[in-house]
Amino acid sequence: MDKVLSGEASLLSTAASAVATVSVVIAIVTVLAVLTDRRSRSQTAISWVLLIVVAPLVGAIVYWVFGRAWLSRKREKAYREVAAERAEQRARADAAGLAAVRRKAVGAVESALVEGERRLAVQAASISGEFPVGGNAIEIFEEADELFERLARDIDEAKHHVHILYYIALDDEVSRPVFRALERAARRGIACRLLLDGFGSRPFLLSARAAELSAAGVEVVEMLPVGLVRSKVSRIDLRNHRKIAVIDGAVGYIGSHNLAARDFKVKARYAPWIDATVRVRGPVANDLQKIFAEDWYLETDEALWHLVAEGPIAIAEPAVAQVLATGPTTYESAMPQVILSMVHMAEEEVVLTTPYFVPDEPTLAALLVAARRGVRTVLVVPQRVDSWPVALASRKFFQRLLEAGVEIWQYRGGLLHTKTVVVDGQTSMITSANLDRRSFELNLEASLVVYDDATSAALRRVQEGYLARSTRIEPAAWFARPAWKRAIENGVGLLSPIL
Fold first, then answer.
1. Range of the structural domain that residue 369 is part of
2. 109 and 164 together in one domain
3. Active-site annotation holds for 243
4. Given 197, 360, 424, 436, which residue is catalytic?
5. Cβ contact 218:182 at 8 Å
């Protein structure tokens, strides 16, 4: 009996040693992978190494599933094809003599920008290739019911095609007019394409409403399907977080609204969700069309390049705007670098709104520097967010910001989901991107930079409305909080680069 027990103990000891050895080997390989990842910033790498050291096996598994912005070979190939098509379009435009006309129009727009705006425009163009264009009318919508009623009317007026791309779609009383308009448009022969993220819109894609849209002739396509097999062995949590709609390549929508009511039934306890979206009429809508065409091709292999106009730009309205598309295929830190440049542009005031604030070190430094050089620097975040780790990690940064003189306001009227930046009331950006690593490095995001005083002032008034329903964090009260709270926030904050 003793020999049997001794043998079992020896076997267990051998198994435990083998597991420990395998865990150490996996941890070492994973740490090497972290250190050789060209897209990984130092803060991110340190956080991953810390997690792997503390929990070798678990940390390694989490890293390989969620730590690298890797794509399947098929998707990588599709991205290369998209880049080649962009180059081919420009070559065809050159051959037709249209590029010179476009460059002249772009040059006229750039000459109207102030120096800081010109530098920002060149930087943004280096990311997705779109230069600012004039001739746009821009209207801001805050209420979801008004927004989607207007979108439904635009769909009813469509002559050729309707393209809609959203991260989340819900079938509710506010989104329903859009779905009904899509059905009407499809039945009268308009090409209607609805592209929805596979994770954010999973319930909707499986719903009766999606089936009804398909039956009416609307092409409903799942972007970045969820699951190891269906995702074609890409990283499973890469998401298309964009919210855009384009009608006939002439009218577009971009902002932070998901296709849902503000009570947002999937997370109703945080409602209402507060958002803003702009409707653009003019040449910049064509640049939104390019984003949709590229995303559609990546998922379906169907080329819609013939629907993307290249050539003369008619100047009919005053606003100058620039579309910016970011994601894991753009160069490293593309999105935070644009935000950093906007903060550095500020001479009097910069106001930022975001639901999730987990900045990288350069963005944090830019805010600190802006405040210390006398610029009124204002950050508006929701009082309650739907992610407790993000909420705790965010607070880690508050003390440094408050010490530098940054104003931090907490919105009380729901979950403030609007993502905006307004600089000196003259230059602004409305985007789907949050101020966190996921939006900076992983998600496909869409932004609109606006070089227009009237639109920027209107967006600044929207921000002022948020401030009126917010409470300012007083530095003295914040610094006097219990040590245990600061310890928890700083502890979670160590992992902020990987949240």
1. 334-498
2. yes
3. yes
4. 424
5. yes
State yes or no: is 452 an active-site residue: no
- Regarding whether 118 and 62 lie in a shared domain, the answer is no
Catalytic pick among 248, 295, 360, 452: 248
Residue 290 annotated among the catalytic residues of the structure: no
Q: What is the pLDDT of residues 313-367, one digit of tens each?
A: 455 568 999 999 998 878 778 999 999 999 999 999 999 999 999 998 899 999 9
Last residue of a domain, one of 24, 44, 66: 66
How long, in residues, is the chain? Answer: 499
Among residues 161, 290, 396, 419, the one annotated as catalytic is 419
CATH code (residue 224): 3.30.870.10
Say whether 163 is catalytic: no
pTM of the model: 0.85
**Tokens at residue 291, please?**
């984003």
Query: 32 and 115 in one domain?
Result: no
Query: Whose CA is closest to 405, among 369, 436, 380?
Result: 369
Domain count, the chain: 3
Q: Are residues 406 and 440 in the same domain?
A: yes
In the residue annotation, 417 being an active-site residue is answered as yes
Q: Are residues 197 and 253 in the same domain?
A: yes
Where among 49, 66, 83 does a domain terminate?
Answer: 66
Q: How far is CA 165 from CA 174, 204, 281, 406, in A?
A: 17, 14, 18, 35
Q: Which member of 396, 417, 436, 452 is catalytic?
A: 417
Residues 6+ apart with CB under 8 A from 61: none
3-state secondary structure 433-460: CCECHHHHHHCEEEEEEEECHHHHHHHH
